[in-house]
Amino acid sequence: MYGLVRRRKRKTAQSASEGRAPRARTSRGAATIKGGTLAEGTEGLSRRGFVRAAGLSLLGAAAAGGALGLSGCSGSDAQSGVAVENKGGCGDFNESLYTDAFPVKTRNVPVLDVESGIVRQGNVAFEMRTIAESEINRTEETDVLVCGCGLTGSVAALAASDDGKTKVLCIEKMSKGRGMFEGMGVVGGKVMAEAGNEVDKAEMMDRMRHAAYYRVPIDPIKLWADRSGEAADWLQEKFDEGEAGIHEYYKANNANAHNFEVPQTELEFKCEKWSETTTKNAGGAGIYIVADLANTLSKRSNADLRYNTAAVQLERNADGRVTGAICKDADGYFRVNASKGVVLATGGFDANPAMLKAWCRAEDIAACASWCPNEGTTGDGQLMGLAVGGQMDPLPAAIMNFDFGSPDSFYASNLGITALVSQGIMINEQGRRFCSEGLPFQARSNAITAQAHYGTKTFRVASTTQLGKNAATILEKLQPYIEKDWAHEASSLDELAEWMDVPAETLKAEVAQFNTYVDNKKDEMFNRPMAKATKVEGEKYYAIKHQSSILATVSGLVVDYHCRVLDYDNEPIEGLFAAGGASGGFFSGNYPRHIFGPSVGRCVTFGYVSGQTAAQGVN
Ligand SMILES: Cc1cc2nc3c(=O)[nH]c(=O)nc-3n(C[C@H](O)[C@H](O)[C@H](O)COP(=O)(O)OP(=O)(O)OC[C@H]3O[C@@H](n4cnc5c(N)ncnc54)[C@H](O)[C@@H]3O)c2cc1C
After folding, report:
1. The domain containing residue 469 runs over which residues?
2. Based on the structure, what is the number of domains in the chain?
3. Which of 146, 403, 603, 608 has most ligand 1 atoms within 8 Å of CB, for mutation?
């Protein structure tokens, strides 16, 4: 049932730039009001201005009539006045009637337009234009071209070159591949079996699909559930082949850690050479893992790993098969012919503010906090795939949003102020507590962005009590944030409220209410588990600015069970694979942070499968 099938030949050839383009928004209907033309004196107004002016004058007339719509449209008056011509419900539809009704500029309706606060702007390598032959300075031949050398790309290139024969070229746009993660979600495999942690495959598929509220195709999640255990075993073999001495291990995390009971699917990584803080620091282990995999790859005689080299545009032959890509390095453009296929492992688009704005929910990108040191993730893979007719996940794209965002970055755990940031209660700009502080990161982030101004002014509020026995160290670490005016220490809640610019009475009432929940061991408002909660009280009170942050985007090109990119007829595009953050069909709406490690689980499984399948030359 899941066997590889040879896709039917395309009847028409398309050039790389002829791919299915997003449908442009069209304005339906002319600049008239039904049954009429532009009124005298309105010629100089823009269409938008005219509609708004017309709307306002109609409202004015109704108000002058003394009954703003209601009596004016009732009974015989409505018939004789013909306020709305009756065409049996078949009136002209005009989008601007809806978008122009708002007194503020809107993005879709009724979402406030917002620029992405993300300041990380990477260099986009994708080019839509036709690149002239005269600009291409050389042609190289390979079997498999892997674009990107983050986790997914390094895994795909290793899997493709495992047979010692398949010629693999792996290109990375930056001077180093991105690697940000600590845990990997898998179903099955040796380490899980040894730990006696057998997770039911059907249950996990159901959990993942539920998390997407079933807005996902069938196969990507099935692929993860079927082969992630095998991929984890294979990855350990690559670590054994490497020099760092990395080991996968299972640590029995609390399955109810985030008040969402789920089977524990996470494997973590350890290495004697790593310090305690390597793994504690958010994303820390990933940097070393990707470096080790890349190092192993670079030693293989049939693999060629090149940094500072970008994939720019895919190329296809007359049958529509992807034959390779135009790439770019310090010497300019060059063509790579990849006889067995191209794997897009270029990650997401979190370092491309314009794309974030175009494809994501406004609230998901409004906060400026962003946590990722690599700026290579500019959506090149998604764009290259779309340009050859690839199917993109439906919008809005899903983002891995966590809380712990600071005004310009992320309060990583190694900063030493976690107790304050994570123990305090969450307070919005009205001074109100707004969610359970025990939720998964992504849910807390969503709760933040659901507050006024997309949560760009929300806080954690704590007291001496929450700091516990390490209070002195935490306060020392907090000092730089106080100096930046991101945090404040106060002797009373009144004083704290003044710094926060929230109503003091509201804040005091919320804190008092929360303290009764602690006494009663029951959070009547948000159902936070209260066993370990402590009262916000003591000599000093603290507030720290605490926002949503972006870690990665997780939407991309929809793939099948073999990681082949599908077109909009769900037919695989020959010669083209996508994996990891560049691929889609796996998440929808949100990143399900209550499930353990699904993103990295997908990267490793899909990297492994795409590399292996491409090397087999079956497509
Ligand atoms: C702090 C942090 C912690 C995280 N922790 C976890 C975790 O514990 N578990 C989990 O499941 N997920 C985690 N994630 C998410 C995880 O980082 C991503 O899901 C994962 O790294 C995606 O891997 P990838 O290789 O597909 O893409 P990336 O890691 O983004 O790598 C893509 C690479 O492609 C390169 N590239 C882009 N365009 C081109 C081009 N045109 N040509 C050549 N190269 C190109 C980029 O420079 C980059 O190096 C975390 C994320 C962050 C930021």
Report:
1. 412-545
2. 2
3. 603
Angle value at C-alpha 376, between 304 and 25, nearest 5 degrees = 120
Please report the atom of ligand 1 found closest to the CA of residue 176.
49
Residue 164, pLDDT > 80, answer yes
Q: Where are the alpha helices (DSSP H) in 271-404?
A: 276-280, 284-298, 353-359, 362-365, 380-387
User: What atom in ligand 1 is closest to the CA of residue 371?
Assistant: 53
The answer on 378 and 239 residing in a single domain is yes
Reduced to 3 states, what is the DSSP secondary structure of residue 159?
helix
Amino acid at 477: K
Of 174, 180, 328, the residue with max ligand 1 atoms within 8 A of its CB, to mutate for a pocket test, comes to 180
| The pLDDT of residue 211 is above 90 | yes
Of ligand 1's atoms, which has the minimum distance to the CA of residue 183?
Answer: 8
Q: How far apart are CA 356 and CA 117, in angstroms?
A: 10
Question: Which residue has its alpha carbon closest to ligand 1 atom 31?
Answer: 150
3-state secondary structure of 478: helix
Instruction: Choose which residue among 551, 577, 602 to substitute to test ligand 1 binding: the one with the highest number of ligand atoms within 8 A of its C-beta.
Output: 551
pLDDT band at 86 (very low <50, low <70, confident <90, very high): low
Q: Any idea what the CATH number is for the domain that residue 502 is in?
A: 3.90.700.10
Question: What confidence tier does 415 reach under pLDDT thresholds 50, 70, 90?
Answer: confident
Which 3 state secondary structure label does DSSP give 461? strand
The upper half-sphere exposure of residue 354, i.e. CA atoms within 13 Å in the direction of its Cβ, equals: 8
Tell me, in angstroms, the distance from the centre of ligand 1 to residue 581's CA. 6
Q: Is the pLDDT of residue 408 over 80?
A: yes
**Residue 292 pLDDT > 90, yes or no?**
yes
Would you say residue 50 has pLDDT above 70? no
Look at residue 39 and tell me whether its pLDDT is greater than 50.
Answer: no
Do the strands 183-185 and 111-112 form a parallel or antiparallel pair, or are they unpaired?
unpaired
Ranges 243-247, 258-262, 391-395, 402-406: which has the least confidence: 258-262
